[in-house]
Amino acid sequence: MSIEEKVLIRDASFPKPFSNGLEFNAPAHGTWNIVHIGFRIPKAHQIYICAINCLRGVVMTAAEMGELGRFSSVVLEEDDMTHSGRIEETTIEGITDALNKLPELPPVVIVFPVCTHKFMGCDIDYIYRVLNERFPDVIFVKGFMDPIMQKRGTSPDQRLRKAMSDIIPQMPVNPDVAAFVGCDVPASLSNDIRVLLTENNRIIRDTAACKTLEEYLSIGEAEKLICQYPAGLLATKTASARLGREYFYLPLSFNYKTIEEEISSLNLDVPDGFFEAGKKACEEELLNLKELIKDTPVAIDYTAVPKPLSFARFLLSNGINVRTIYLDAIDGSEEEDFQYLASNYPELVLHSTIHVSDRRLVRSPEKILAVGQKAAWFEGTENFVNIIEGNGLYGYSGIKEMLKLMEDAFTNSKDLRDIVPRKGLGCRSIV
C-alpha cells in the first residue's frame, strides 16, 4: 500500500492502494449522509441521541434540507456516562419526551444511538423493548451513528439502509411488481432496466422515489429486488433472504457483454435488435465525445460512478485520455478491470481523496474534464459532471447519457465554489 496520496496503477495494491492514517475531508459534500438517507422513508421522524458537539453536523443537515420538523435530538451529558443505567434512562426518556411534544405521533421513527452507547455497553435491546411498549403504533427503525466503525465491517450508512429495509413487511408476492432497492438516487427514466420493466408491463417501486409510506411498505410484494449501488447491497441481500425474493445486483457497468448478460438474467422480453441498437448508439456518442474533447485529460472519482475502474477502462480503450481516478479503496468486483488497467495503462494515476497532504494541492492550469464533485475539487476545474451514485443510469442508455453529460460539462462550466459545499446532491436545500 502507498503511504503517499497517489500511486501509479502499475504499483498499486489491490484492493487497498493506500494505507490508513490521518485523514483529510475534502469540501465536496454532494454525497449523502445518514440524515439524507433516513428521510427517504416518507413521514419518518429521526431522533439522534448524542453529545452536543456531535449533534451540530446532523442538525445542520436537517436544517439545510428544511426538514427540522421531522428531526429531534436528545443530548447526552457527562453524568449520563458515569452513573450505571443512566444512559439507557436518558435515551428512553429523551425519546419519549421528544415524541410526546410532536403535533402528532409519526408512523415511523428512526432512532440513532451513537459511539458512546457502544463504549458504555448500553443495553440497546432494552431501550427498544421499552419504546415499543410505550408507542405500539410506531415503527421503530434501529439506526446507528457510529463513525468509529468506518474502518471495520459495514459502514453506518450501509447498516442504516439495511435497517430501513427491515421494516418492509412480508406480503404475498406479486409477479407484476419489481423494486429498485438501496440507492439514494431513483432509477432514471431512461435506465434500460426500468424501460424494459415498463415494456413488460411491470409495476415499478423504488425506495428512492416513494411518495407515501404505503408505497414504501408495498415493496414487500415485489417479485424482484434490484440493487444498483454498492452501499445498498447489504440491505438488498437481507431483504431478499427475509422475504424469500430474488435479488439482482446491477450497478452501472461500462462493459457491453456484462450489460447483455445482466439484462438477460432478469428474464424479461427484450425487443429484437435492442442490444445492437444500444451498442450503436454508444459508439456514435463516443465519436462525438472524442471529436469534442480531443486529448483533454479526464479525471474520475468514485462518488460519481459505482465502478470507476470499469468506466476508466471503457474510456481509455476508446481513446479518451483518462489520467486520474480518485478513490480510497477498490471494490472487489473491479479486480479484472484493475489488472487490465495495470497491464495496459500502467501510468494511470490512482489518487486518494482522504490523504492529509491533499489539503495543500498544487493544481494544474490546463483544462481538465472531471466526472464527479471530488475529482472536480481536486483538479480545480469548473468543467465537471455533477452527479453521484451513477445518477440512476444503467445499460446502453446509461453509457450514452454519461457521455452526453461529459460533452455538456466540457462545453458548459459550472460554479465549483457554489456547488461543492452543498450537502446531499439532489436533496431539497435552503442553503
Strand order of the largest sheet: 1-12-11-10-13-14
Characterize the overall form. globular
Count of DSSP H/I helices: 17
User: What structural class do helix, strand and pairing data support?
Assistant: alpha/beta
How many beta strands in the DSSP annotation?
A: 14
Feature tags:
17 helices; globular; six-stranded mixed beta sheet; alpha/beta; 39% helix; 431 residues; four-stranded parallel beta sheet
Short description:
By secondary structure, this protein is α/β, with parallel strands linked by helices. It has helices at residues 34-38, 52-65, 78-82, 86-100, 115-119, 124-134, 156-166, 192-199, 213-217, 233-243, 256-265, 274-293, 308-317, 335-344, 373-379, 395-411, 416-419, and strands at 6-8, 44-50, 71-75, 108-112, 139-142, 174-180, 203-206, 222-227, 246-249, 298-301, 322-326, 349-351, 369-371, 384-385.
